[in-house]
Design brief:
One of its GO terms (cellular component) is cytoplasm. This protein has about 350 residues and is an alpha/beta fold. Helix content is about 40%, strand content about 20%.
């Protein structure tokens, strides 16, 4: 899974709709047979991030090509109770989760006697708790080993090593209480760095995709409230896959799809924003970290744009569309020249000068 792109891992218990969701996201055929360990090696798919601005800019510039920003989704096989001890194919699955940057947790919230549920009953909260328990126990093992190592380092190290041990002991205690690492609040930069070194599974942001038969169902919406409306959404995964397979023939049915909401939510939890470039050859959206400076944004295009950065000519997308052309925008004084300290905003249309 070596990639420079940020990745979202799709996880969940067996038979909850993970591979079907992956198929809908990427329109890439994967093995979705009704068998607990059908997906042993994770499938990786590059997914376009929806952005209405691209079509408008392409039209404005008469661009030959339009290239959206993208993120990678990874279909990780079903996690089972005891995974932290190697149950099922636990160790392999946990290592795949460790490599991704965020998690989409698919939770089954529909009844279907033909599709076996590993627990024998449908209980979304219980399913979430099983997965979180496995991730917490795997992290606890990591923290315990880190404490043991650090105790040896402290004997020959200084104050910095002692502080590191304090952090490791604190997170060990936190995890032992059954809490996720994302709920462990620290502000000291050194402590944050020490914690990051542990690569804890539960430190990754999580989006809950509740797999339902009807996204308008009041009981389903109630369940979403339990999971937190800001970090969950309702999806009829089977319908999403059918719409994806139909492509342009889906017609009005496309209005029933919520998959773009999931992609946008994933983009947000990764802490990404988009800047745009446009011209005769292509109009393109580029993914960069929030709060990136202009030179750092340039790196998305090529390392030279960061290293040899002189200045950037920037206009807000809305202003460029109102002006109707670069020439008119220049006449109106809407283009701004910015230096290396400028923090790029989502929707900036940029031309780099190197």
């Amino acid at each position: 899974m070596s990639s420079s792109k940020l990745q979202i891992g799709i996880v969940g218990l067996p038979n909850v709709g993970k591979s079907t969701l992956f198929q809908a996201l990427t329109k890439k055929q994967v093995d979705t047979s009704n068998y607990p360990f059908a997906t042993i090696d994770p499938n990786v798919g590059v997914v376009a991030v929806p952005d209405f601005r691209l079509a408008k800019l392409t039209e404005l510039s008469h661009s030959k090509k339009t290239i959206p920003a993208s993120i990678e989704f990874v279909d990780i096989a079903g996690l089972v109770k005891g995974a932290h001890e190697g149950e099922g194919l636990g160790n392999k699955f946990l290592s795949h989760i460790r490599e991704v940057d965020a998690i989409v947790e698919v939770v089954r919230a529909f009844e279907n006697a033909d599709i076996h549920h590993v627990s024998g009953r449908i209980n979304p909260v219980e399913d979430r708790d099983i997965i979180h328990t496995e991730l917490i126990l795997a992290d606890l093992d990591t923290a315990e080993r880190a404490v043991s190592r650090q105790e040896k380092e402290v004997k020959t190290g200084g104050e910095r090593e002692r502080k590191k041990l304090e952090v490791y002991k604190s997170i060990q205690h936190h995890l032992a209480g059954g809490k996720l690492a994302t709920d462990f609040l620290i502000s000291d930069e050194e402590h944050i760095k020490a914690l990051r070194e542990l690569q804890l599974l539960t430190s990754k942001p999580i989006i809950f995709a509740l797999n339902v038969l009807d996204t308008e169902d009041s009981k389903a919406k109630e369940t979403m409230g339990v999971f937190g409306a800001d970090r969950s959404l309702l999806l009829n995964v089977k319908l999403e896959d059918e719409i994806a397979q139909m492509g342009e023939d889906a017609g009005e049915l496309k209005n029933e799809s919520h998959i773009d909401e999931l992609i946008k939510k994933a983009y947000e939890v990764l802490g990404l924003i988009t800047f745009l470039t446009t011209g005769d050859d292509e109009t393109r959206a580029w993914a960069i970290p929030k709060d990136a400076t202009a030179p750092r944004a340039g790196r998305a295009i090529h390392s030279d744009f960061e290293e040899k950065f002189i200045r950037a000519e920037i206009i807000r997308y809305e202003n460029l569309m109102k002006a109707g052309s670069y020439t008119k925008a220049r006449e109106l004084g809407l283009l701004q020249t910015k230096g290396k300290d400028y923090v790029v905003q989502d929707g900036d249309v940029i031309e780099f000068k190197i």
